[in-house]
Amino acid sequence: MKPEILAPAGNMTCLQAAINAGADAIYLGLDSLNMRCGATVSFTKDNLPEASERCRAAGVKLYLTVNTIIFEGELGQLDDMLCFAKPYIDAAIVSDWAAVAACKRHGVPVHISTQMSCSNSESAAFLKSQGAERVVLARECTLEEVAEIASKVDIELETFVHGAICVAVSGRCFMSQHAYGFSANRGECRQPCRRKYTVVEEKSGDGPLASFDVQGHNVFSARDLFALPLLDKLTEAGIRSFKIEGRARNPEYVAAVTAAYREARDAVLAGEFTEELVARLKTKCETVYHRELAQGLYHGRPGKDQFASDGVENLATQKKEHIGIITNYFVKAEVAELLVHNDALRNGDVLSIQGNATGVLDIVVDNIQCDGEPATEVPRGHLATFKCTTRVRKNDIAYRMTDV
Predict the structure, then answer these.
(1) Could you report the per-residue pLDDT of 263-301, keeping only the tens digit for each?
(2) 6: which DSSP letter?
(3) How many CA atoms lie within 13 A of 84 on its CB side?
(4) With contact defined as beta carbons under 8 Å apart, do 243 and 234 qualify?
(5) How far is Cα of residue 266 from the mean position of the Cα atoms in its chain?
(6) What is the pTM of this model?
(7) 3-state DSSP: the chain helix, strand, coil percent, rounded to 5?
(8) Dihedral of the alpha carbons of 55, 59, 60, 63, in degrees to the nearest 10
(9) What pLDDT digit, counting tens, does each position of 76-117 carry?
(10) What is the SS3 assignment for 350-366?
(11) Element of type H or E holding 180
(12) Residue 186 φ/ψ, nearest 5 degrees
């Protein structure tokens, strides 16, 4: 069976970018009871129907994350959310047994979140007996363990393949709660693991305390997961869904990474998965936000090579600069009109045009015109027009993309 490419969406632009990039399924959260509600609050009861309509029109499945711990006073809210969402979603991703029970009451298919830390076949079998259709395995499972679990249990298995990794077991971290009073298990993580620390060593006797700064972020900050080189082995193991982390990341991240993993998955199925392809797709993934990349715990339990050592939070090989806003699109002529806000737009610039309906469109502009006349560049405050064969929309934001 063909594994699905499951992409994240923190807002409607990201959702459209994922659809355009070839996602088979998308996961998102509403404004509460999900692990990213403190980072992105773009999906609500008001726009979930539109998100669902876009996905269904494209043949893409939609999953709702309801994966925080649930307190007693929130049981009614949980029921209300699932009752409302049921017509618009294909499954709910849950981690609390109250959410499992609520899904069963309301007839919503259940996917077990990685927060439940399912790491063996007995746990997977038990979860299936409780009504789960899919289990997102714990990120601590090795490649061999993933394959063994898949061989023993007749249930859909999902694994993370790309994105940020929490330093805690299966993301159940308490550092943010203890440090700042904001619980990661309630979608409010302030990411203390990504900060720089000073280590203090107490000397024996009455000697002074010795302290030193730890260079980089290698104390608690795990490297980002990059499991694309393992897609052939994960497919052979029987994994049903490849999950990309990143509901708090930007649209160009969603577009680039989703497209890369879609191409890799298709190559695996076609028998065309090569080292050259992996290298090219890695370069593509590196253009957008990422920390140091590694293959997570698929090759073994945590060691020093799992933690970032560079000291730079974002290693993207490309950066974006806001350059203007789309003011019109002429459908018959296939021409876009852009009001330049910042530094001049020039022939040969690479633009990333982003918007709720457009998603992410990357184009190279050429033969631009300034106020209706041919020009090599268009200065700030002027209108630029240029050929654009893919439709964009008024108020889409345009960014210039440059190499770092």
Answers:
(1) 999 999 999 999 999 999 999 999 999 988 988 888 876
(2) E
(3) 14
(4) no
(5) 20
(6) 0.90
(7) 30, 25, 40
(8) 80
(9) 999 999 999 999 999 999 999 999 999 999 999 999 999 999
(10) EEEEEECCCEEEEEECC
(11) helix 175-180
(12) -120, 15
Share of the chain above pLDDT 70, in %: 90
- Rg of the chain in Å (alpha carbons): 23
How crowded is the C-beta side of 54, counted as CA atoms within 13 Å? 22
What distances in angstroms separate CA 86 from CA 79, 92, 110, 334, one per listed residue?
11, 9, 12, 39
Say how far apart CA 146 and CA 159 lie, in whole Å: 9
For residue 223, the model assigns a pLDDT of 87
> At 185, which amino acid appears?
N
Rounded Cα gap, residues 129 and 135, in angstroms: 12
Domains and CATH numbers, the chain: 4-173+220-306 (3.20.20.70), 318-403 (2.40.30.10)
Q: How many helices (H) and strands (E) does the chain have?
A: 10, 22
